[in-house]
Amino acid sequence: MNPSPRIAVIDDDVAVCDSLDLLFETRQWPVRTFASAEAFLADARLDDFGCLIVDVRMAGMSGLELFARLKEEHGYVPPVIFLTGHGDVPMAVNAVKEGASDFLEKPFDHHQLLAKVEACLARDAAVRTSRSQQDSVLSRLEELTPRERQVLREILAGKLNKQVADRLDISIKTVEVHRARIFTKMRVHSAMELAAMLKDIPLETWCPSA
């Protein structure tokens, strides 16, 4: 993933695009503008952006339609801030209920927009970090043998080595060997570290037979 996500401004008003481009340059935030939702879909990679600023009402595909499509096609959509005219505020409010981050009514205060974008970029960075960490953990889990995964499951259940040995019908010495290998591959030093590392990863994703 891009370590410095850009801001996407999607608005069919050229003046708005140019204004926001200059505004974000004052914060040295990378920005890319698009004249329509269709242009964004045709020429952008969603993962390159940490915040989307989208006009609710545009010629062709509306901002709301774009948001719905992105949610349908992608597992993660960066924070979205909608720009709206007075008559479109109810639609923007509904979009927030559907998962958009926020909205601003035109004409909007630049300082308020900067604050909202900064919060969105921070939220996106936190999500990216979490996803990266989870991918790393899943990669380590893939290194475990089927038997090591079984032993890991019992360790997470709080079982002692003797209990694990009895349940899996193996010797205590074998359990100890598997336990040591698991700790090495997962890069931890205790069962507590393992439990903390795996608390947000569903058991069935790495131990299908559980």
Automatic annotation (TrEMBL):
Keywords for the protein's UniProt record, in alphabetical order: DNA-binding, Phosphoprotein, Transcription, Transcription regulation
PROSITE patterns: HTH_LUXR_1, HTH_LUXR_2, RESPONSE_REGULATORY
MF terms in GO: DNA binding
Keyword Transmembrane helix: no
Positions of the HTH luxR-type domain: 137-202
GO biological process, one term: regulation of DNA-templated transcription
Modified residues (4-aspartylphosphate): D55
InterPro entries xref list: CheY-like_superfamily, Sig_transdc_resp-reg_C-effctor, Sig_transdc_resp-reg_receiver, Tscrpt_reg_LuxR_C, WH-like_DNA-bd_sf
Top-level division of the source organism's lineage: Bacteria
Domain annotation Response regulatory: ranges: 6-121
PANTHER family noted in UniProt: DNA-BINDING TRANSCRIPTIONAL ACTIVATOR DEVR_DOSR
Protein name (database record): Response regulator transcription factor
Natural source organism: Chitinilyticum piscinae
Lineage: Bacteria, Pseudomonadati, Pseudomonadota, Betaproteobacteria, Neisseriales
